[in-house]
Fold these 4 entries.
Entry 1:
Amino acid sequence: MPLSDFQPVIGLEVHAQLLTHSKIFCGCSTAFGAEPNHHTCPVCLGLPGVLPVLNQRVVEFAVRTGLALECTVKGTSVWSRKNYFYPDLPKGYQITQYDQPICEWGRLVIDTPAGEKVVRVRRIHMEEDAGKSVHDATASAGQSLVDLNRAGVPLLEIVSEPDLRDSDEAVEYLKSLRDVLMYLGVNDGNLEEGSFRCDANVSVMPKGSTVYGQRCELKNLNSFRFLKQAIEYEVARQVDVLESGGKVLQETRLWDVNKGVTRSMRSKEEAHDYRYFPEPDLPPLHVADALIEETRGALPELPRAKRQRFMSQYGLPAYDAKLLTAERPLADFFEACAPHAPDAKKLSNWFLGELSRLLKEEGTTVSSVRFTPTQLGELLGAVEQGTVSINAAKDVLGEMFRTGAAPANIIASKGLAQVSDVGAVEAVVDEVLAKSASEVEKYRAGKKNLYGFFVGQVMKAMKGKGNPTLVNELLKKKLGD
Amino acid sequence: MALTLEQVRHVATLARLSLTPEEEQRYATQLSAVLDAVAQLQSLDVSQVEPTSHATLASSLLREDVMRPSLPPEKALANAPASVGTCFSVPKILE
């Protein structure tokens, strides 16, 4: 059977670092990028005689996330020990939740070419992160280095059902989930720094079958592109194995970025016996109904709902609405500007065009923009009234972006005002036509592509400030079109 | 409930214990006896009893999300058999 006769089946496990100030069970900082082992204490180093004390914000964030993903939030959940040996796990076990996680059975709606799709979320649980092993040049041969700053940083693990059917759906789910977590303010969505991580469970079955194939777990997928590439590679690999009469083995496979392949991590296999048992140092966690209801009431509008509102309230196309609402600060700024702008679609064009370009160029976010919504409204109004050309307005926006100066002042001081006075433009048009008698003759004789030449001459004479609509109107009139 | 030697070896591997053949035998016997003792509890009907994972506190105590000073790195590393800079140094991790 060819590849196209097989149906991929994919589920994702996401680990999201929570945006708390301190670690999950101790007061050490969670800040990224500190010198190695500068954020450690007896608790997160796993020294004898210490006890973990749960950070309440971790619970609040877990409840918030669970409700946003329409999960059931459990009144009682239980901590467990997951036992394994690795140098970046100082206690020899990870404190996590196993058979009684804090949230179960939610869902996330994503967009696919065939329309909306519901992806079920099986569970969400809280756990501590491990430290980091460093294998770089500072380590000599036969040596690895360990930094425990990250040990004990709070994580949410969010596990989907195997409801995804191709790599594009997997990417869309991961992006949508990231957007939700960032909207909720619980995670910074940074795949590169590893604060938002994803493992993929991938299997294949013949199309039409209802029995899943044996699955492999893919690791090291630290970008959306790698997730897509790794799934596509893995699906083709599993089909090859089956087609040549082999069996897919359940195993953990690492995405090799350089070679573009997944390869088996054999050492992980025997360690899969984690011997979970209830964590004796932490009693079961009780979450009060009051906290759940209070959190539910305080949930922000989520990306999907906001996108739909942007379409209905501002009359924006789905494409614009999706881009504008992907990140909450941009959406908020758009809504702050909208009442001041003459037209929401044009405002959207400025947001997705020139403003996005400026933000990207400066490597900054919308929160550091210096101009106010009113000022942006003034600029768009000036374009609308023909006071400045669109091109000049782009320069003005750049200046506003950098200095926060008022658009009217920038237009005046840079002499960017567009000439919309009929008499003034007409005088220039007349002058140009008079100087170009031979071209005018040829034009009237049928050489219509000379039109651009006249526009060019008028604009040159007016230093680019002629109102283009007016210039066109007058030229056409005078040329007898 | 008799534990097989194979099971004893598996548990020993997971716990990073290296046992002599005599020890494997002895632990198989001892651990089987422990399991037998626990197995007696299976005869009780606990269908109406809430599972108890903890005998003490009813619920977790929570703390505010407030940062507290960490150890100076030299203290954090004081017990390490080997270190490089402020990193723990361990035998090379393969993979």
Entry 2:
Amino acid sequence: MSLLRVEDVHKSYGDERVLEDVSFAMDPGDVEVVIGPSGSGKSTLLQCINRLTEVDDGEIHLDGEEIHRMDENELRRRVGMVFQEFNLFAHRTARGNVTLGLTEVLGMGKREARERADDYLSRVGLANQADSYPAELSGGQKQRVGIARALAMDPELILFDEPTSALDPELVGEVLSVMADLAEGGMTMLCVTHEMGFARSAASTLTFLDDGRIVERGPPEDLFERPERDRTRAFLGRLTDVHGGT
Amino acid sequence: MSGDEDGSDSGPGGAPDPESGSDPGADGATGQDSGSAAGSGPGGAAGSGPDGVPGPGSNPATDPGTAAGAGTATGTGTGTGLAEEGVAGADVAESRGTSVGELPGRRRLVVAAIGIAFWTWLVARWAYHSTLLDDLFTALGAPDVIRSEQGVRAREPWFPAGPFEAAADAVGGVAASLGLASALLDWLRWVLDLAAFATEVAPAIAAGAYFTVYLTLVSILLGLVIAVPLSVARVYGGRLLSGVALVYTELIRGTPLLAQLFLLYFGLPLASMIGDVGFVGRGAIPREAVFVAIIGFTINSSAYQSEYIRSALESVDPGQLRAARAVGLTRLQGIRHVVLPQGLRYAIPGWTNEFVYLIKYSSLAAFITVPELFRRARDIGSDTFQYTDIYAVVALVYLALVLTTALGMSRLERAVAIPGLGGSGN
């Protein structure tokens, strides 16, 4: 059974249709990369999946269970999210960012939470920055804390919302390599990103979203080498120019 | 009635911190400087200070400093002292400080010393006439150490007025022999007379200050307890909750505090209800008017505090709550663990404003018979007819309370500062 199944999802903000008839499914361990021009509904799609935004119509199933019949906090515990703007809790240290969910949502004891936080921080290469506040970290370090924060909750699926778009170019690599490690380790990931190198090497499926609709979806090599649609070809061509694909 | 000091020696601000100290003298100086700068410089210069800079917690009191800086910049300044004041003022504005900010070390020490001396004297006075301590010492077999049985009027000053009186007389004699050129000496004589007068009224002033501090502290803290949920309701409540909070806030802020106190004390049977409670007015428990004043100030202050906290909460990045929700925290958990810890830090400068206001507004309790600082002053004035003198003395006591509070709060702000949060953390 698929871990995530999105069926006929529609979403509008007022008169503006953001998602139209979006359907796809992911199996455990899949790494799905969603690309598309800005305003195509990529971020909205992610927010619908952890219910930071509610869909107008359609169903989303997590592990066979319709998410709108679930407690939303339970859903969010099972679906991690990494933000473009990091959104680290500004008043807590790197460690504090990770432990908050552990103690308040999972009900862990302080010491256990602390050990687990340190473990996950060291997995993303930040063992020495555990006591630093977000303002004292570089963008790449912040985003790695963001990933550790999501990861420590032991989610079934992690959503990445353009995790490298707010980063200076020289800091993108450290975040991508953490993500690549995760993909390697079998984590199910749904990533909105324009890092074509990552899409090529780590993605199991590439989805091209435009104007709220899925234009084309398939293994990345297919979309890169033999796109069926001209729009896909044009968009990928422009992306590869800007972000580099090889 | 007399000073019993549960918790009072953790007075507003407590002992001022030498590190975060500032100089009221310098504050006064900047005030004068800005006056001269505005007077002699091009009119626009004084107003050209970074008025736009201050954020939510900016204090108007910092502007004179920057104005003084502008004065020197236009060449009307008379020395390096002026420039220094200007710079100090600008620093305060940048750090959103609480009116008294950072000043060079020696001045800080002077202020700290004055503040500590003031509070030591105040607390010692309260302790000396505390019924609680008297009971304690009597139980320990030393009944005469604490003198709680003395009425306020019967209390003896600790410092002699004689030397000041003698000095005043001496200065007066010299002034008389000089004839016309004695304006300065006359003024000096007035100051010495005032000092002599101040030593005589000091015990009554201390007794009044006890109620001022007590009312302010209790009301600001109880007000905070109400203000936090109130501001959360304003920002995050649904239409109903935020509507109720809005009506409460605007009703309280839109009516005079004195009218609110009169309504509570004279209009409602509140005072007699409180008076009927057995322990009210006995021993260390103050009488009913004090409780009514606390209720009034708490309600009033909660409305103002909630406005300061509301604007601070609104300045917390919405992404913070979204991230908290994404981790699985409920909305309430997110507000409690993520939004409030940040918002309350942002609120400290504005909250200090309210604190300082309340110290002074507590004088309105005089009109519902609470024998606090202002009422003591009024009574002394009608006994002695030295109205100018007593109000000058009391103004200085209020000033000392306010400045030490502001220092204490800026120390608190520093103590809870987190890198990257707010203006002063960096």
Entry 3:
Amino acid sequence: MQNVIETQGLCKTYGNHFAVQQLDLAVPEGCVYGFIGPNGAGKSTTMKMLLGLIAPSAGKVLLLGKEMNPRNRLALLRQTGSLIESPSGYGHLTGQENLEIVAGLKGVDHREIDRVLEVVHLTDARHRKLRQYSLGMRQRLGIAQALLGSPKLLILDEPTNGLDPAGIQEMRSLIGEMPARCGTTVLISSHLLGEMEQLVQQVGILNQGKLLFQGPLAQLQQHSRGDVLLRLLYPQRGLQWMADNGIRCRRENDTLVLPPMEEDALAQLVQALAARGAGVVGVATRTRSLEEIFLRLTEGKEVA
Amino acid sequence: MLRCCIAAENRKLRRALIWAVFLLLPLLAGVYGTVNYLQNLEILTPGWYNLWTQHTLFYSLFFFAPMTALYTAYLWRLEHLGHNWNLIMTVPVPRFDLYLGKFLVAWKMVLLTQLWVFALFVLFGKLWVGLPGWPPAEILFWAVRGTLGGAAVIALHLVISMLIRSFAAPILLALAGGVLGAYFANENLGLFWPYALMMSGMNSNRAEDLLDGRMGPFLLACLVWTLLAFAAGWLLLNRRDVRSE
């Protein structure tokens, strides 16, 4: 599968400070890619470099297989829709007029306006002035602007920012169906991994300008298997057996905490402990939420 | 693509507040000029030429340059507000076309302003002062010629207002530029000061053509100033990172 977005050694420095450092992004065609990181991690800076809004200090950007440079810029932008930082628009004009401006500049037929208004459910509000729109409506108008011209690639910077839960849900389903419906590849950023969990297939986790993880969401979820908790009637006996067999564990009251292990091994271990008369009364595995994995990653801890 | 940019700028000016300024300031200057003319009839030779001197005295000194700056500041303010830099810099049009689109639309507004000034001049001259006949065509030519100096100031202020996010500062700058322009024009240094080009172009406060026989250098100066500002605009748009707030 071709990568729709690829960066090679992408860097952006401001003075001595690295905003983005040696970034090698790879966004496969036809997926929703979640670009996750805390505020200030360099997500917006990266997205701006992808779009040619700011120039990289080093490295290069490839969109749709072509390098983003002054020569290819217009051809690439023609196939790209974006919403960066906050939705744009002109407050004294109506939603319709705002879309007319963007459609005109993109060289897109004005009939497209009806379609995108429909998609973002703003048809009824099209003749209201933008300054009367709520933040959620402005976000949706921003998406509509990005959708004009049916781009192959959508770059959306925190499009759920400031939305209420219903709005977030709506935005998620709207974005989630883009690949299947229009063959669009979507790069979407967020500072919340949990929010992206039901939406994305690929994840890139960015912190302090560095990519900590990149790959399928499923691969990240494998990290979510957590510690094993064994509750015993006679924890001392259990502890003794563990020590005899060289298994590391920790005691918390009547519970032994073991590192994550395969289920076969766990079954055998429970059987052995029971035979030893430790009185196994409870087995539980602590699952780690994606949010915890994300926090561990971004706090520089190892993912066990 | 330039066409798309011009159309976009024209759309952005729908229902824009600056149209009120466009209507009101020349009206104010016209009323002031007419009153001045009527009060100084003892020392003025009555007629269309001297009505023009009075109409343009106040207007070119205090209004023409700031109004031009207001138009350009407004066109950029639209982009400075609401993260619109991100929008206009990610649409598939050459960056300089956006600048040129703004330039042409601002120039159109300045041309309309000058025609409005001339219309008020004729209106007040006929209905208020009751001057006989019609004004010489030469005066209409002066009014339009002022827009050539205006082009230089527009090009310059498009660069200034692109860089300075403040709305008022460039307008104050133009006010100072206009007032200094009177000094430069008097010292015969008008060609070296773009704001003075506007004044000498529209032959403000003069009954005889200021540029008689000096049209060549005037046109050249307008062109050079405009092209210098274009070059600065091109460089800034293509070399600088986009900042949206």
Entry 4:
Amino acid sequence: MSPQQSTFPALKRRTMDNRPVRTKRTGAIRHLLLAAAFLVCSSQLLMVDANSWWSLGLTPMQRPEMYIIGAQPLCSQLSGLSQGQRKLCQLYQDHMTYIGDGAKTGIKECQYQFRQRRWNCSTVDNTSVFGRVMQIGSRETAFTYAISAAGVVNAVSRACREGELSTCGCSRAARPRDLPRDWLWGGCGDNVHYGYRFAREFVDAREREKNYPRGSPEHARMLMNLHNNEAGRQAVYNLANVACKCHGVSGSCSLKTCWLQLADFRRVGEFLKEKYDSAAAMRVGRKGKLELLDKRFNPPTTQDMVYIDPSPDYCLRNETTGSLGTQGRLCNKTSEGMDGCELMCCGRGYDQFKTYKHERCHCKFHWCCYVKCKRCTTLVDQFVCK
Amino acid sequence: MAGAIIENMSTKKLVIVGVILLLFQAFAFMVGGLIAPSPTTAVHYLATKCVDKVKKPQQTKWFMPWGEKKCVNIQSFDEAMAKGIEANNIVFAVHIPLPNKEMSPWFQFMLVILQFDIAFKMYNQIADGALVHIDVGLAYRDDMNSEWTEMAHSLEQRKLSCNFTATKTHENEGRHYECDLLPFMEVGSVAHKYYLLNIRLPVNERKKINVGIGEIKDIRLVGIHQNGGFTKVWFAMKTFLTPSILIIMIWYWRRITLMSRPPVLLEKVILALGISMTFINIPVEWFSVGFNWTWMLLFGDIRQGIFYSMLLSFWIIFCGEHLMDQTERNRFSIYWKQVGPIVFGSFCLFIFDMCERGVQLKNPFYSIWASDIGTELAMAFIIVAGICACLYFLFLCFMVFQVFRNISGKRMSLPAMSKARQLHYEGLIFRFKFLMLVTLACAALTVIFFIISQVNEGHWHRGEHMVQVNSAFFTGIYGMWNLYVFAIMFLYAPSHKHYGDEQSSIQCITGDAGVNSCEDIQPTTTITHVDGPTEIYKMIGQEAQE
């Protein structure tokens, strides 16, 4: 247990810097496994690598209570986890459902933000999730990494607040065993911080365990992913606003308690979309680090997104890039933006047809679960790209 | 007659005393900043949405959000919609604290704040001035396996004040409103290990209950409690300070009673200040660890109120007694005009506190701010108290101004006196001004630290160590006022050097005063018979005679 346990607690001590820290034991195992996998089938390696933990967001997961005794099945059944992530999974079984939730909210938000773009964040299958487009280090990939990391921070801190996670709370306490004493002495309030730290361990584990030579394209891609993951996590952390309550003598403000309050995820999505628009193009520098393609711009901060490859053409279906094309997409005839038929259909033109749109109207609501509506039907024109 | 220590002590000794006090002051700040954790912690809770299948809701059934006897719950209300669950069947359950932790009496109090996550829907918006009717129950238990015991149950109303920052269009559906924090619950003692809150939002369309409150997505609670570590440090500090103030107080009063004359008003007021300081110091809170005394919070407020009003009265009387005019003072009735606002203001605050915390003894969910009349009443009390505070400060400033004016007036006549007396009085005036400055410095320090602790996020990183600014503020300021009271009692105690009438003829003036000055003063004191704690009194008396 001890070498495994050190994965998360040992990394806790680090501050906000991004230096990869790896345990030696896992490194050895990984080398062995990698070699074995390579020997067995070199062509399949690419497929294994294409799997992503994002798939947790698509495959419905059973509740972790079922796996409390038989710890192994859940983690080995889940596809798309890397070695390090599988280890974290074994240690923090109860977190897995929420990581899945986080991935799901991330993907949903991605689809909402990109609903009017040529690339609309559509999922392809259950293993690679977004398909081959993610193998290109483009802006879109950057956004996907960031928003899914953000989703995990959001979901883990939410689960914390709901009392679903046993290790939640106390930021300095290493193990739950120490909790009561620390809790009594200084309380353990900040679960946003916990969400942030856990997401960093889990999401980045996959990148950190790769060992590419410095300066290679794979290494650059790893740096890019790490940077964008961090940007996504920081977005949640930084958008959280501070709320305070005064509770001194006679309600005076001599005693004031403040806490972080998470913004709703739509705002995180919007914030990251802005970062997507201002993402920085990078290339591999001489020291193996990423540096700006155009030196005139300001270097990106940890909150900014970076990308290393130009985006593929999303207009046409392309098996090699993984682009799905915009054929069959709905568009807006009057709009001049990205959702306008001109841009969306890449000049190929569009088909027009009439359809009935059913809408709810004259509704009566309760705060939950009760809506009494009439159904109104209107005839609308719809346009579909050729 | 006797002069006070402040006049007769040599400068060297005075400096030593000052340095020792400063060291203690620094120590008080350090105890808070380095040893104690932050004073309070806020813990977030997200209410679990339990489903109450029973047609007629039973009062005895408690819904647990997690653990073995976990309730049947739903993840989101979309799920409820599909299952045909109604709003009246939803119970929001919150267990305090989070799993694997337990509450402790060391937490002293528990304050819970309520927040709604309400999604914006084009056709289901929050009505203006919407009221939320909350049916809430609080239960406790002391071990994980026993049954829940009801502690309180109440029907509460809270006013929703939410605003939507984005434009209200179809595009922005699903975004959340930004709602104000609602005061929810306050418990004055944390005697039990586990608490459970069950919240219902019953809908009744006919009575317009819980209609037009938007689409609630989640209920979030924030539980605030004092930290155990801070409580321990605080208690330790109180336990240490109580005997020190008590001893100096007894010593002070013994010196006063040893004198041949009866104590004057200023001396009595100083004793009263000492008593109120001791009253606030006595660590009766230790009992709260063993007993379930919910009134401890209110009692603490009252003690603090008594001390502060005593301190404010002391300043007024201190200034008044050094007002070197001809009027006969030394009677409490003279000061009713100045002390009146203090008493009235603190009485208003007391009533306000009773309305809020007093009622909370009975119903922990009560909040004076929840109803319109209550809000107006509370505001009225606070405004009246504010006006009283303003009046007080005007009076105080005016009196301080008068004292300084009179002192400078007296200074003009100093050259007429002999050299030794002149030096002596110069020294006295300097020391009084010095004490004034100390008071001012204490007040300024309080205000400055108050602002720092408000602006600052609560802690500073100093390399490896974390400095808790807020804790340092509390222990530092508390220590400061204790040291202040200590210093006043010490410096204003009658000096040993003038014990009895026989001694006064030998040692009338400290330091390098000559025999001449001795003879000079001797008749003054005997003729005027103005008994006062200080030499200034005698000076005034003499001037008045002349």
